[in-house]
């Protein structure tokens, strides 16, 4: 009787996290295609669904990913360097890890910043030239 229960549990295969993520990706793509091509433009579609609900969910997801990436990378580097048992190696590996982390962060910032300068896009808003709507004068 126990052998049958064990075999039945082995046969029941759970869907893995990667598969669930891939299914969600495909469902999101299908939803986007249906929303774009099959549902006609209307105020409800454009203002409420696209610019309202989906925009808020998308911005929230992007901000959560931004909040998660840097601490996750930093903690994985620290935990990886702490897994070394020898304290003599730990000092050199810790310094190398910190230098590598700072160097790759600086590289990522430069990769993100230089195309802006090359394309001639403004990096910041010039506060001096802000026009007050009520008084119509330059502040």
Q: For the terminal residues, how far apart are their CA atoms? A: 84 Å
* Rg on CA atoms, Å: 26 Å
The major β-sheet equals: none
- How many strand segments? 0
Q: Let me know the average pLDDT.
A: 79
Strand content: under 5%
Form type: flat
The parts where pLDDT drops under 50 for at least 5 residues are none
Give the number of helices. 4
- Helix and strand succession? HHHH
Keywords summarizing the entry:
139 residues, mainly alpha, 0% strand
Characterise this structure:
The chain has 139 residues and is mainly α. Helices cover 76% and strands 0% of the residues. It contains 4 helices and no strands. The chain has helices at residues 2-11, 17-38, 43-82, 87-119. Helix 3 (43-82) packs antiparallel against helix 4. The longest helix has 40 residues, at 43-82.
Task: Tell me briefly what this model is.
The chain is an all-alpha fold. The protein has helices at residues 2-11, 17-38, 43-82, 87-119.
Topology:
Blueprint lengths: L1 H10 L5 H22 L4 H40 L4 H33 L20
Helix pairs in contact: 3-4
């Amino acid at each position: 009787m126990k052998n049958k229960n064990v075999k039945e549990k082995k046969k029941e295969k759970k869907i893995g996290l990667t598969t669930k993520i891939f299914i969600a990706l495909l469902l999101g793509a299908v939803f986007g295609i249906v929303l774009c091509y099959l549902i006609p433009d209307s105020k409800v579609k454009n203002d409420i669904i696209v610019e309202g609900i989906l925009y808020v969910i998308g911005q929230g997801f992007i901000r959560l990913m931004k909040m998660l990436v840097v601490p996750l990378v930093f903690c994985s580097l620290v935990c990886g360097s702490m897994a070394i048992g020898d304290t003599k190696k730990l000092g050199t590996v810790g310094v190398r890890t910190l230098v590598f982390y700072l160097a790759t962060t600086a590289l990522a910032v430069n990769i993100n910043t230089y195309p802006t300068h090359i394309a001639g896009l403004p990096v910041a808003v010039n506060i001096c030239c802000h026009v007050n709507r009520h008084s119509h004068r330059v502040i």
